[in-house]
Write a structure and sequence with these properties.
Layout lengths: L1 H7 L4 H7 L8 H15 L9 E7 L6 E7 L4 H10 L9 E5 L2 E2 L17 E6 L4 H14 L69 E4 L7 H4 L3 E8 L5 E7 L2 E4 L19 E2 L2 H8 L3 H13 L3 H4 L12 E2 L14 H10 L10 H9 L6 H30 L16 E4 L2 E5 L12 H22 L4 E2 L3 E6 L2 E7 L17 E4 L4 E4 L4 H11 L4 E4 L5 E4 L6 E4 L5 E4 L9 H7 L25 H26 L9 H7 L41 H34 L9 H10 L7 H7 L5 H27 L7 H13 L13 H7 L13 H16 L13 H12 L1 E4 L7 H6 L17 H10 L21 E4 L2 E4 L5 H15 L3 H19 L4 H16 L3 H18 L5 H16 L3 H18 L7 H14 L3 H19 L4 H16 L3 H19 L4 H22 L1 H5 L25 H5 L15 H8 L23
Parallel strand pairs: 1-5, 11-23, 14-22
Antiparallel strand pairs: 1-2, 3-4, 3-5, 6-7, 7-8, 8-9, 9-10, 12-13, 13-16, 15-16, 15-25, 17-18, 19-20, 21-22, 23-24
Helix pairs in contact: 1-5, 3-29, 5-10, 11-12, 12-29, 16-17, 20-21, 21-22, 21-24, 21-25, 22-24, 28-29, 29-30, 30-31, 30-32, 31-32, 32-33, 33-34, 34-35, 35-36, 36-37, 37-38
């Protein structure tokens, strides 16, 4: 928690440098211990490595001495931070450390402190305060004692960074759900109901104990001049729990109670019993208030119940904003009086506010110039870079929101709105619109909007390449209230007036493409950039047809700043145009402004190929090159045995290679030299360049053919292969719009191809039908987003909630009210509306909105929705997609999407989708009433009966695109660890993985999306290495960090919960595992709806876990549910279905339903026999079981007495661990255990370990039991 205060105080580079550590770990103590544990395993006989040892810290007050384990790899400031955060030393914030009487510099490594070794004594010496230290101390103490209350942050939305991890499995009163002796956590799960939105919110929390009623700056602040010279820094006023008010002076020596009151000013020390003085404000408050110490202890205990990561403040990433939040009346969002809330900006950054003004560009570039030879230099550089980007993104987004709201004066107020530019906090802002006609021929505003989005991606690509001496400006794109705003750090010299004849730009196109500059100093820099990004060196021609050789696109500019650095600007054209798309769907704007033909009216000409596609095409070309080389060699040396060359293998590894992997072999000494291979695309073909010489024309034609071939590769290879993989279950099936987008982008497919993919998916296959439904939903959400933005853009802020509510009613509430009414307050409208406000949204009807959205989909995705519209029962999913895309935060309540649910559900806060209205139990409804009280509408206003009201839109948050680079060092360590594990060097692998983990945490800070992914990956790898305890701990962390940085219902969070369930089960906590699995399934329903194709696996695992708990009847229900989805998705005669029938039969046998078991096993046997043949092992296995089950069914009918005793005869069951990938055989029943659990030769039982199960869940192993290896019915929950 100290993080927030220290974080808040970052002033400049050196200062941010000090505070970066704050975000590193919630408690240094834990981190060091964690490090000790990790290394203990590796050290000989459990000895600690030499650089980790224990020292003593001597304190000026009780307890006077504490032991501490340190690592010499850390800096002194890390140790200082650990002291600040330890419970015994909370009160210290202004101090320095001494060793043997010598002061230690905070900025050196501990290894540089002379004679520091085991059992050394470091002394904490309290320093005199200055004004800044005093302010930070006050902030810190307010945080510590829980007096800071709720912050209203302009950037972070309501409940930003929420985590549900600690409250999963609790009922609405916040207590663990009581399971009867016969019940499991899955007892009342409804497979077909729609998602219950109560699962996205924590239950009401008990309020934290109060240590003090209030503490704030007093009205006598700041000290007058004559008292400043005497060392007075601040005046505070505190109200204790005993209702006593004390005025306190903050002095250079510490804090004391003074003689002031609210009416009279006398800051001299008080006399008598209240004559109290202490160096720390915390100690002074303890002395002042008798109840303080006890309540502070209770507060610490209250906070200790929570997982530290769930309450720690995010400082290196912008927290995720939930799209559903509690109503303002909820106990989760109470608004408390707190005078100091308005004083915080002064406390953080002082009177002049200079602490927060930073020269962003200089910080970015000087960080880039830091040394990166040694590993510790790289760690420090990347850590600083990560922190700097996080601070910049935060500051730039805050400024962009002020620009959007019109709170910053433009630099050019006389120009058109879209052309206005702004500077705030040393960041330059402009609109993502074509204000000055730059993109007139490319599509105007639409082209400009796309260009700035692509520019961010380009800047990120260049940042990741980290080319020495090539610099970029910090770039952030913010979508807020319908406007797109670009924030850039100011490149020195960009606004400089050049002399006549001097160009504004030094490399690339100047003023359109009429003049081309080609400063030679950029050539070596752009050459490295082009090589990495596969950009071909090519000529371009200016308006006088003068030829210029450029390394990059003519659109990519180079500028020599006044600081002498070379900057790359306008990085939106790093890849060629998608010429196939442009020729099919774009036509040049005509001179006389005629409307374009509908088949050629794509909104802009900025349709470029994705960098991933260029890479994929490059790998294809490399394979062709290698194959040709092999053929050449083969022709030279006929008849020799040939081996696949290494280069080929490398090119093939993990890529989309079908048959080529099994290429011919070649003699041992042969290698294919790929140094002769080169592949690059010309980004300027089809962009209006006219080659002059014949040689250039021929080369240009070649370049054009190559780009056409790449476009063809996308349409004929990449997209069809992706659809085939989704159909066959080769890749994880997307859950929502975000996972669908990332699936497409990873394969280099642009979102504009959604319509084409929907057409190709329109086949009878159930998986493809599910894909088509998801794509149609995504197209509707995106079409609606574009239309909603066009309306929101021209509405002033007070009307935005009414506008959004009306648009949502037209989209989703038409069945509930076919004529929704916009809820604009007419009085406010009369008072503040301007001619620029566009209230045309009030006239919209569901029909006109549908027409607009269908037009957007036809325009952008070339897809005719026909009769399809919002799918019945999927309104909640579409509402979620739209809210995430527009940054909406809606009040949590039951939204009725039909007339019935609107009337029935008016007072009931549980959500219910139309088709299951009334299906939830009454007890659930009662429970829910406690979490969300009915809306407190003013009785004077009667609102029309419609799904959404303006009051439901509680907040709109910005949607951010940013360019922060990944840490190469952390990625390299992770990859090295992976490779070592793959090569069976387990100990080395484990060491490298733990090092990678440490690097991720050091560089990014713990709460960061990259760290969430690292936790997820590492937990799986460590689990495979049999380090179950570490894997489980990391799986818990992955869930929390994913929830807080990506969102409580993000697709990655669902996968993290499923992972956690498996690891908990493997560690013997099956009940906890089922709680997490259930939560993941409830989230799945909200994100996707019921029956996701990949949920077969999860239901199957839950069934196996239930068997482990001997909940046989419930287990059977879950197997049957899994089977039902499998029959829908894979068909009734697939191998997958046969496998599940096989397992279900066993579950039925355990549930003593012998007749059902025989029927299911017979179905399984018939499918295996038809598909695989009678001789296949799977068929024989099923046949053997069928015989045994039939005999048991016969004997069961005869011997009802035996059944009453609970014995199932002649079924050979195993007593081994029941959880295995296929759940092929049920766990032992009591009867079989009593009978000794003998096994016959025919009942071969799958005895795979939990590691295999993990592989299966991650999609690496087959779904069928070991005896059924013929075909691989993959069902993965992993993302591709």
């Amino acid at each position: 928690m100290a993080a927030s205060s220290n974080d808040a105080s970052k002033s400049a580079m050196a200062n941010s440098n000090v505070t970066t550590e704050v975000a590193q770990t919630p408690s240094k103590e834990q981190d060091v211990n964690g490090e000790v544990e990790a290394t203990e395993e590796d050290g000989a006989n459990g000895q600690l490595p030499d650089n980790i040892f224990q020292i003593k810290i001597k304190l000026p007050h009780e307890p006077f001495e504490i032991p501490m384990t340190i690592s010499t790899a850390e800096q002194v400031q890390d140790l200082r931070q650990s002291i600040i955060e330890m419970p015994n030393t909370f009160q210290y914030s202004c101090f320095h450390l001494e060793h043997k009487g010598q002061r230690i510099n905070d900025f050196v490594d501990l290894s540089e402190v002379p004679e520091l070794g085991p059992d050394s004594v470091l002394e904490v010496k309290e320093d005199p305060y200055n004004e800044k230290e005093a302010r930070l101390h006050v902030i810190r103490v307010r945080e510590l004692i829980g007096a800071a209350g709720d912050r209203t942050d302009a950037l972070h939305g309501i409940m930003a960074g929420l985590s549900l991890h600690d409250t999963v499995g609790l009922d609405q009163s916040g207590k663990p759900k009581e399971d009867g002796p016969e019940q499991s956590p899955l007892a009342d799960y409804d497979f077909k109901s729609s998602g219950a939105i109560k699962n996205l919110l924590p239950p009401p929390q008990e309020p934290a104990p109060k240590c003090i009623k209030s503490i704030a700056l007093s009205a006598w602040n700041p000290p007058p001049y004559h008292l400043r010279t005497k060392g007075h820094l601040l005046y505070l006023v505190a109200m204790t729990n005993e209702n006593e008010q004390h005025h306190i002076t903050s002095h250079v020596t510490g804090f004391y109670v003074n003689k002031s009151s609210n009416a009279s000013f006398d800051p001299a020390p008080r006399q008598g019993p209240k004559a109290l003085h202490a160096h720390s404000l915390l100690t002074l408050l303890e002395k002042l208030s008798p109840s303080f110490e006890a309540s502070f202890q209770q507060l610490l205990e209250h906070n200790a119940k929570k997982e530290l990561l769930t309450i720690f403040q995010l400082s290196n990433a912008i927290p995720a904003n939930p799209w559903l939040v509690p109503p303002p009346t909820s106990s989760l969002t109470t608004h408390q009086p707190d005078l100091a809330r308005t004083q915080e900006s002064y406390l953080i950054s002082g009177v002049e506010n200079t602490d927060t003004l930073r020269d962003w560009n200089e910080e970015f570039q000087s960080t880039r110039e830091m040394p990166k030879e040694a590993v510790h230099d790289r760690v420090f550089r990347e850590r600083l870079t990560s922190k700097l980007f996080a601070d910049y993104n935060d500051a730039a987004t805050r400024g962009a929101m002020l620009v959007a709201r019109g709170e910053i004066a433009p630099l050019n107020p006389t120009e058109a709105k879209d052309a206005q530019i702004f500077v705030y906090n040393n960041i330059f802002y402009s609109f993502g619109a074509d204000g000055v006609g730059t993109f007139g021929t490319e599509g105007g505003d639409e082209a400009a909007r796309v260009a700035v989005g692509k520019d961010v991606i380009g800047v990120r690509a260049v940042n990741n390449l980290d080319i020495p001496n090539l610099f970029t400006s910090g770039t952030v794109v913010v979508d807020f209230l319908g406007k797109r705003i670009v924030g850039q750090s100011i490149v020195p010299g960009i606004f400089k007036q050049r002399d006549p004849g001097e160009h504004q730009i030094d490399y690339g196109a100047v003023e359109g493409k009429e003049i081309v500059a080609d400063d030679k100093s950029f050539v070596p820099l752009f050459e490295q950039l082009s090589k990495a990004l596969r950009v071909k060196k090519h000529p371009v021609w200016d308006k006088d047809n003068v030829r210029h050789e450029l390394e990059g696109s003519v659109e990519t500019k180079g500028l020599i700043g006044t600081d002498g650095r070379r900057y790359a600007l306008d990085l939106y054209r790093l890849t060629p145009l998608d010429v196939a798309w442009i020729e099919a769907h774009w036509s040049e704007p005509s001179k006389d402004e005629d409307a374009k033909p509908s088949e050629k009216n794509y909104p802009h000409r900025m349709a470029t190929l994705r960098p991933e596609l260029v890479e994929s095409y490059g790998r294809l070309k490399l394979r062709e090159y290698v194959k040709n080389e092999i053929d050449k060699k083969a022709n030279k040396a006929r008849g020799g045995r040939r081996r696949l060359p290494k280069a080929q293998k490398k090119a093939d590894a993990g890529k989309e290679v079908d048959g080529e992997k099994k290429a011919e072999a070649e003699p041992e000494q042969d290698r294919v030299d790929i140094s002769g291979f080169s592949f690059a695309l010309n980004p300027d073909v089809f962009s209006g360049q006219t080659p002059q010489s014949d040689e250039d024309k021929a080369e240009w034609a070649k370049d054009e053919a190559e780009v056409r071939a790449a476009c063809d590769h996308l349409q004929t290879e990449v997209i069809p292969r992706m659809i085939t993989e989704l159909k066959d279950g080769e890749v994880g099936f997307p859950m929502d719009g975000q996972s669908l987008s990332s699936l497409l982008h990873k394969r280099g497919v642009n979102i504009r191809y959604l319509g084409k993919i929907a057409e190709l998916s329109d086949k009878p296959d159930p998986r493809l039908q599910a894909l088509k439904r998801l794509i149609v939903q995504e197209m509707i959400a995106r079409g609606f987003k574009h239309f909603a933005n066009s309306k929101l853009r021209n509405v002033s802020a007070p009307f935005s909630a009414a506008c959004v509510a009306h648009l949502l009613n037209c989209l989703l509430g038409a069945d509930a009210n076919a004529k929704p009414v916009a809820e604009c307050d007419e009085e406010i409208k009369r008072m503040i509306s301007t001619p620029e406000d566009d209230f045309s949204f009030e006239k919209l009807t569901p029909e006109s909105l549908k027409k607009e959205v269908i037009a957007q989909i036809a325009l952008r995705y070339r897809y005719d929705l026909g009769e399809s519209w919002v799918e019945s029962g999927k309104e909640l999913q579409l509402l979620r997609e739209v809210s995430l895309k527009l940054g909406l935060q809606l009040q949590t309540r039951q939204y009725g999407f039909t007339k019935e649910t609107l009337t029935n559900g008016a007072a009931v806060p549980t959500p219910a989708a139309p088709q299951t209205n009334g299906s939830s139990t009454s007890s659930k409804k009662k429970k829910n009433k406690t979490i969300t009280p009915p809306r407190a509408d003013s009785p004077a206003v009667s609102l029309p009966s419609q799904t959404f009201h303006a009051d439901d839109i509680l907040n709109i948050v910005p949607v951010i695109k940013e360019a922060s680079p990944k840490s190469l060092l952390a990625e390299e360590a992770l990859e090295a660890g992976r490779m070592s594990v793959a090569q069976d060097q387990k100990e080395l692998g484990q060491e490298l993985l733990l090092e990678s983990l440490q690097l991720h945490e050091q560089i990014y800070g713990v709460l960061h999306p990259e760290v969430a992914r690292a936790y997820h990956t590492l937990s799986n790898l460590l689990f495979n290495l049999d380090d179950k305890a570490s894997a489980l701990e990391l799986a818990h962390k992955a869930v929390i960090v994913s929830e807080r940085t990506l969102g409580v219902d993000h697709a990655d969070t669902v996968l993290a919960y499923l992972n956690l369930g498996l690891f908990e089960h493997a560690s013997g906590n099956t009940k906890a595992a089922l709680v997490y699995v259930r939560h993941a399934l409830e989230l799945w329903k909200i994100i996707y709806g019921a029956d996701h194709p990949d949920s077969i696996t999860t239901l199957n695992n839950a069934a196996v876990m239930l068997q482990a708990m001997k909940q046989y009847h419930e287990s059977r229900i879950w197997f049957e549910a899994s089977l039902a989805i499998c029959e829908d998705v894979s068909g009734k005669t697939s191998i997958n279905t046969a496998t599940l029938l096989f397992q279900t039969a066993q579950a039925l046998a355990l549930d003593k339903d012998m007749r059902g078991a025989v029927n299911r096993m017979r179905e399984s046997y018939n499918i295996f026999k038809d598909v695989l043949g009678a001789e296949d092992r799977n068929t024989k296995e099923a046949e053997s079981w069928l015989e045994q089950l039939t005999q048991s069914a016969v004997s069961q009918a005869k011997q009802l007495n035996d059944l009453a005793k609970g014995r199932i005869r002649r079924i050979q069951l195993t007593g081994r661990n029941p959880l295995r990938p296929a759940a092929a055989t049920p766990s032992v029943s009591d009867a079989a255990a009593a009978a000794g659990g003998q096994r016959t030769g025919t009942g071969r039982v799958d005895q795979r370990k939990i590691e295999d199960l993990l592989k299966y869940i991650e999609g690496e192993s087959s779904k069928t039991p070991t005896k059924k290896r013929t075909q691989n019915p993959r069902k993965r929950t992993q993302k591709p």
